[in-house]
C-alpha cells in the first residue's frame, strides 16, 4: 500500500470514526463562550480597547486565548493523535494496515499526515465557527461593532492570524512526539506524557530565554507584543523550519523503531 493510499484510507476512517468528533468540542465551547458573553454572564475585556466594543478579529483573538490558555485545543489534538497510533497498536488494528503494506514507513507517515490534516481542519472549523458566532450574536449587540479587522489593544488582523498560526505550527512536533511515545506506551500514558511536553513547551515559549526563541509560539507572543515585523520575521521562519526538521527527524527515528517493533 503506497503512502497516498494510506492517507486516503486514514482520512476516510477518521471521518467515519466517532472519536474524531472530540476535535469539535472547542466549537461547542466557543458557542457557549459567545452565548455567555452576549448575555453578560461571561466577561471578556481587552487592554487598550477604548471603544469598549469588539471587532470580529478582536473577539476571535480573545476567544482563542480562552481556549488555548486552558489547553483545551492542545489536549484534544494530543488525545486524538494518541488514539490514532498508540490506540491502534494496543488494540491490534494496525495489523490490518501492515498486512496490506510492504512498508511500515508508509503506514506511519500516512497516519501522521492524516492526523495533521484532520487536526488542522478541526482548528479551521473552530476559527470559522467563532467568526460566525460573532456575526450572529455579537456584531449587532452593544459588545460588538460589526467590523472585521482587529482594532483593540494595538492588534492588527495579521498579528492575530500570525499568533494563531505560529501557535499551531508547534503541534507538528507534539504530534510526532506522541507517535514516538505510542510505540512504548498505551494511548492513555502516551496522551499524558505528550501533554507534559505540551505544557512544558508552552511554559518555555513564554520565557525570555535563548531556547525559547526556537519555538514558533514564542515568536507568536512577540507578534502580540507589537514587535516590528523586521525584528521577528526571519527568526520566526527559522523556528518554523527548525520545528519541521525536528519533526521529520523524530518521524524517521519512530519509523526505525517501528520496523523493529513486534506488533501483536
Brief rundown of the structure:
The protein is mainly α and 264 residues long.
3D structure, described in words:
The structure is a single chain. With 264 residues, the protein is mainly α. The protein contains 11 helices and no strands. The mean pLDDT is 86.
Helix-strand pattern, N to C? Answer: HHHHHHHHHHH
Number of strands: 0
Q: Mean of the pLDDT scores?
A: 86
| Main sheet properties | none
Oligomer: single chain
Instruction: Give the helix/strand class.
Output: mainly alpha
Number of helices: 11
* Strand content range: under 5%
Q: Give the helix level as a range of percent.
A: over 70%
Rg value: 20 Å
Give the CA-CA distance, first to last residue.
20 Å
- List the uncertain runs: none
Q: Overall 3D geometry?
A: globular
Amino acid at each position: 500500500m503506497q503512502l497516498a493510499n494510506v492517507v486516503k484510507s486514514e482520512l476516510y476512517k477518521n471521518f467515519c470514526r466517532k472519536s474524531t468528533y472530540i476535535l469539535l468540542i472547542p466549537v461547542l465551547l466557543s458557542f457557549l463562550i459567545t452565548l455567555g458573553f452576549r448575555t453578560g454572564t461571561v466577561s471578556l475585556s481587552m487592554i487598550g480597547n477604548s471603544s469598549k466594543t469588539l471587532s470580529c478579529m478582536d473577539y476571535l483573538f480573545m476567544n482563542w486565548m480562552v481556549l488555548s490558555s486552558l489547553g483545551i485545543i492542545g489536549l484534544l489534538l494530543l488525545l486524538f493523535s494518541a488514539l490514532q497510533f498508540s490506540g491502534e497498536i494496543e488494540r491490534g488494528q494496525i495489523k490490518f494496515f501492515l498486512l496490506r503494506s510492504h512498508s511500515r514507513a508508509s503506514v506511519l507517515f500516512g497516519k501522521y499526515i492524516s492526523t495533521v490534516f484532520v487536526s488542522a481542519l478541526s482548528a479551521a472549523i473552530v476559527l470559522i465557527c467563532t467568526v460566525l458566532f460573532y456575526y450572529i450574536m455579537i456584531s449587532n449587540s452593544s459588545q460588538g461593532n460589526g467590523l472585521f479587522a482587529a482594532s483593540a489593544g494595538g492588534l492588527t488582523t495579521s498579528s492575530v492570524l500570525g499568533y494563531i498560526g505560529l501557535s499551531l505550527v508547534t503541534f507538528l512536533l507534539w504530534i510526532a512526539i506522541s507517535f514516538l511515545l505510542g510505540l512504548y506506551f498505551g494511548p492513555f500514558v502516551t496522551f499524558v506524557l505528550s501533554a507534559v511536553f505540551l505544557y512544558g513547551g508552552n511554559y518555555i515559549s513564554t520565557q525570555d530565554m535563548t531556547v525559547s526563541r526556537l519555538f514558533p509560539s514564542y515568536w507568536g507572543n512577540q507578534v502580540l507584543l507589537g514587535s516590528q515585523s523586521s525584528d521577528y520575521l526571519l527568526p520566526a521562519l527559522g523556528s518554523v523550519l527548525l520545528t519541521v526538521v525536528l519533526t521529520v527527524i523524530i518521524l524517521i527515528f519512530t519509523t526505525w523503531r517501528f520496523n523493529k517493533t513486534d506488533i501483536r
